[in-house]
Records
---
Amino acid sequence: MPEYKLSVLLPPLSLWLAVAESCTGGLIAHRITNVPGSSVYFDRGLVTYSNQAKEELLGVSPELLQAHGAVSPEVAEAMVDGLLSRTKAKLAVASTGIAGPGGGSAEKPVGLVYLAGAYNQKRVVKHYQYAGDRLRIKEQAAQHALELLVRLIGTDEAGV
C-alpha cells in the first residue's frame, strides 16, 4: 500500500506532504493518516469540493475555472500549485473529477479524474477514466494519487 511506502520514504527526507482533494473528498488524507506516525510528514489535507473553496483556499482563479471547468488538467495543476504556495509542504497532490452517478457529460463523463502532483520542480498531471460506482471511483483515484506521490519522490515501486 503506497501510504505505507510514504511512511518509510518521507521521514528521512524531512519534508512535508499536503493534499488538496475535490472528488476524493478526503479519502487520500484519510489513508495517509491511517498510518501511525504520519504526523511526522503530513502537514494537511484540504477538501476543496466547491469552486469557491478552490478559489479561497488554493487561489485557483475564477477565470481558469470558467475557462476549463473544475474537472480539468489546468485546474488540477492550479490546485497543487496553490497548495504548495500556501503551506510548508514540498510534496503535494490534488484531485479533481466526477465521481457520479450524476454530473457527467459527453465531454467529461462520470469517472473522469485528474490528479496533479508536485515535488520540488517536478509537476505531473495525470488523466484517468475510472469505471464503477461512486465509492469505487473515489478509491481508485485515491490509490493512484498515493502511488503518484511515491513515484514523485523517486521510486517507481508503485508501478504507476
---
Amino acid sequence: MTVQYETKFGSLKSYEKGRVEAIDDDVKHYAFSNCFEIANKSAPYQKVVFGQNQIYVLEALRSEGVSPWFTCAHDEFALNMDTDVEVHLIKLDAAQTVQDPEKDGAVLVQGEPRGQKMGWMKLRRGHQGMLPKNTAYQFRATEPGVLVLQTCKGDLSVEKWADICQTT
C-alpha cells in the first residue's frame, strides 16, 4: 500500500493552525504556536515571541508597508515565510549604535539613520538574510507577509503566550 503525502506551504492568506497531537500524554505539557496566525493578528512589524530557548527567541513579524529602522548590538537573522520583502541596510555611525554591547534584542534607531548605505536584499519565500550588529535595517513590503526573526529577547519583544499557544 502506497501512502501519498501532500506538502502545503502556509502563508498569511492561507494557513491552518495545526495542533499538538499527544498520543499518551496531556497536551497541556506542550506549547504550540503558528507564525502565520500570530502575524495575522499582529500590527505591522510588531515583534511577537513564539519560541524561546533561554535568551534566544524566534519572533513572528507581520511584514506590511515600511517598518521603522531597527538596530541591534548583536547579529540577527530574518527568514521570509511569505511574500517578498526588501531589507535595506545602513552601517551606523558610532553615535547611533547600541552603546551597551551586551544589550539583547533590537531597538529603534533614534531619528534617521546616519552612516554608509550598505545596500539592500530582496528576500523571497524561504530566503534568510543576516542583519549585522550595529547596522540599521528597515523592511519594505508591498503586500502583507510573514517574517521570522532569530534574535535575543529585548525591549521590543512582545510576549502573548496565553493568546498564541494551544492550551487544550
---
Amino acid sequence: MELTFLGIIFFIFVAVTVAKGVRIVPQGEEWVVERLGKYHSTMLPGLHLLIPYIDRVGYKVPTKDLILDIPQQEVITKDNAVLVVNAIAFVKVTDTQNAVYGVTSFELAIVNIIQTTLRSIVGEMELDQALSSREQIKVRLKESISDDVADWGLTLKSVEIQDIKPSPSMQDSMERQAAAERERKATVTKAEGDKQAAILEAEARLEAAKRDAQAQIVLAQGAAEAIKRVTESIPDREFPAYYLLGEKYIQAMRELASSANSKTVVLPADIMQTVQSLLGKR
C-alpha cells in the first residue's frame, strides 16, 4: 500500500517535471524565460527544453501586429474649441526583452503616449485647421512617438485618426453661430436690395424730370418758331399774338365741349374782343 502511494507521488513528480521542462511555443508568439528570477532567454516558435524548477516562462508575447484602440478624448485647440478625437494604432513587438522589461505594460504605454501626443498636436492647431488636417495629424503623430516606442522594443506601423469632431456643446454653439451668420447675411442682402431699388427709383425720377424739361424746351421752341413764322407772314405785329392766343382759346373751348362733365358751353359773341380783353386791349 505504501509502495503504491509512493509510486503515485513519483509519477506525479515526473509528469510535472516533464511538463515544466518541455515547452512548445506556438507560431506568432515568443516566450521569455527567466532563470532564478533573471532574464535568461527568449524562446521562438517550436519545441524547447527548460530546466524544471529553475527556469520558468515569465512572459508570453504575441509577435503579430497588435491593434490598439485609442479611447475617445476631448482636446482643446489653439482657439479654445473643444474637439473629440479617437484613433487606432497598429503596433508590432520587435524586441521581446525590451517590450517586457522596458515598460510596465507596453500596450498601456502606447495608448497613453498616443493620447498625450495627440492632445499636443491638435492643441497647436486652430479649429478649422484641425478638422481639415487629419492626414497631417496622423503623420506628425507617428513621427513624434516612433522613437519613444522603439526604446520599448516596439514598432509603430501605423496610426489612424478614426474620428475628429467638435464636442456636443461645441457643435451646438457652431450651429447657433452658423444660423446667426446666415441671418446676418440675409439682412445685409435685403438692405442691399432696398438700397439698390431706391437708387434705381431716384435715377428713374431724375431721368423722367430731364425728359420732361427737354420736352418743355422743345414745345417752347416750337411755339416760338410758330410765332416767328406768323409774325413774318402778317405785317401787323399785334395780330400774331391774337391769332395764337385765339387758337389756344378755341382749342380749350373744344376740349371743354368734348368733356363728359360739360353739358352746356357758352361761347362769347366776339372772340377777338375777348382775346383782346385778355391781353389788356380795348
